[in-house]
Amino acid sequence: MAVLEACDIHVRFGDRVVLEEISFAVEPGEMHGIMGPNGAGKTTFFNVLTGRVKPSRGEVRIEGEDVTGLPSHRIAARGIARSFQIMTLFDEFTALENVEVALPEFRARGFDGRRAAVGDRGFESAARAVLAEVGLAEKAGIVAKDLPYGDRRALEIAVALAQRPRVLCLDEPTSGLGSDGRARLAILIARLKGRLSIVTIEHDMEFLFGLADRISVVHWGQVIARGTPAELRQNAWVQRSNLGRLQ
Amino acid sequence: MKTPPHAEKLITPAMLVLGLVLATVPLWISRVGLYPYLGVEILIWSIYALAFNLLLGTAGLPSFGHGAYFGIGAYAFGLTQFNVAPSLWLCLAAALLAGGIAGALVALFISHRRGIYYAFMTIAFGQIFWFVAIKSHGITGGEDGLLKIRRLPVDLGLVSIDLSSNTALYYFVLLAFMLAAVGLWRLTHSPFGRVLSAIRQSETRAAHLGYPVRLYKFAVFTISAALSGFAGGLFAMAQNSAFPDVMSLHYSGYIVMMVLVGGGMVSFWGPVVGVVVFLVARDVIGAYTTSWMLWFGLLFIAVVLFKPEGIAGAVQGWWRQLDPRRLREGARLSQVLRG
Amino acid sequence: MTPPLLVLERLKKVYTRGALVKRPTFTLEADLEFPESRIVGVLGPNGAGKTTLFEMITGSNAPTEGRVLVAGADIHRVKYKERDRLAIHYHQSYQVRSFSKRVPSALLARSPTPKPILHLFDEPQFNTQDGYIGFMLDFFRKLRAEGKLVFVCLHPTARYHLEILKEIGESFLLVHGGKAVPKASFSELVVDERARGYLGPDMTATAEALA
User: Fold this and answer.
1) Res. B222: pLDDT tops 90
2) Topology, domain C6-210
């Protein structure tokens, strides 16, 4: 069964139709890429998947269960983690604190006001393990706003991973990263793939075609093409483009 | 607010020092030209300011009508004393509860709001409570206030301590202040406090991490209002009366000024600093001119313009400037030792 | 018998100027029928009325005379909210949905179809570099295979625009001189004098080479 599924999603803001009809399913362990020109509705689609926008028609399902219209915190608690196109970290928190607050066990104790969050060995060791995974083990104590850009991007992924999600939704994870940063991110995602499902909006074709199992091309609020990178590459026009030259 | 040192401790060295210094206040306050009742006032307003700052500084929720809950606590203390039983514990519990219930009621209507809309709603509700207090002459005494509220004795079963002297009351209120400070320190640095701080930094992000943001906003508003009500109860006891003016918009503004001038946004103790500066300034400047509020207002503007992090922020800044020099000296010392 | 997908029944749009003596500044006439699904390439100079034609077909711009029947229903007599269940007008990357709401929606009919059967693409942005062209053309073909009628309007300024038209266009529509004229094939389009004039000598030569 698909981990995350969207059926015939239709979204309009007033007179503007943003999503005409999108259907989509992520299989366990799959990396599903979403690409498309600006204004195609990719981020809105993400907002529908993560409960920020309620679709006018259509259904979102997590492991077969209808979650359409649930608030984002309920969807997050069901194992859908997301990063944002414009980075949103808790800037005043250290890297460690950012990750700790994302842990499900921290969330389970969210209303606990009687014990200290600082110095809790359980939270700290779990958070340090996640930081180590994205290569930030040495920077646990640095306040997020003082981290360099590439590390902030990595921390965003650490925060998402800390939620131990079933599906990781990344909105343009490479944006603003140089080639080193992209390479580092690609290695990280390749390692995560298979362990959990990943949905990525991405403009960097090289990045996406190298990593994704399947890609959905979104335009005019619809999926205009879908397939494995190899299938999509077979198209004669794609062969003629920069994409065809990549290989 | 960055996580300060000793955040994990229930009682910090700073708390102990503060407690000890405060315990000596009755011994010298009259000699510096002030009076013991000012100490009582400062402590009560400090409880109120810390409770307010849980909302503003930690959770980032601007409440500009917080005087309502302080006032409701004061009335609850008096009315319980008159109509139920003259027991200190019962009356204080009633003040806490009344503030909490009023806060919960308001929080129910405003917790889905953000920013300026949130602030406006708190003003609107604050004004409603103030108006009701003025108009319900039969219950609150209207503008004449609720008079003849007694300072009830501390009943410990076997012994009973009289609080009618300002010094005795001072020590009782100091105890309450220390308890409130310890509780709020812990709360601020608990998982709950961390989530509140996360919500202040980004509600959207917190929601996407699975936190029911509205419920947290509801909870923190209720806690803050309850504790403000508790402070209000102490205040009614201290001044032997309860008046609607503490519920008015400009009294609600005072608490905002105290907290911001003191540096509540960057420091847990900032609000206390603000209260001390505000109340001492009121008495000292007030001794020379009746328009002391003008001068304090100018101070407030100066702080907002030049040091938005408040007095506590400025002190932290100096401290940090000092720090590298001490570090360098330490390094030199260790070199000398090793060499 | 199923009604034709699209009928433009003596359709006429006239824009006039002047308060008392109305002088027409723009006219567009069309009397056409598209019985079944296909991909239609639409060409014509700027200002000839391609967009006006698309707006009339999708129900956002009322014709001066005549009717637009989509799947047998007069789209201008269908509830505003449901017109996009008959026809969608895409302008570049966005959907155009603006209706002048003169008649209350309650007095209008419901759409006979749940999903749009007409897709009109007004100057989609093609870029040979990113490879999206291939996906877009496949999408047009997919719609065609699902029984939809697809209009693709292009303003050929480069060789690949003509290649696209040649590749996917099953028939063509030349909007020129106040009329929408059907052309059965690419070669028939290329020999038309008005089309040649509009394309210019360079593009005409390219088009001839392709045909």
Assistant:
1) yes
2) Rossmann fold (3.40.50)
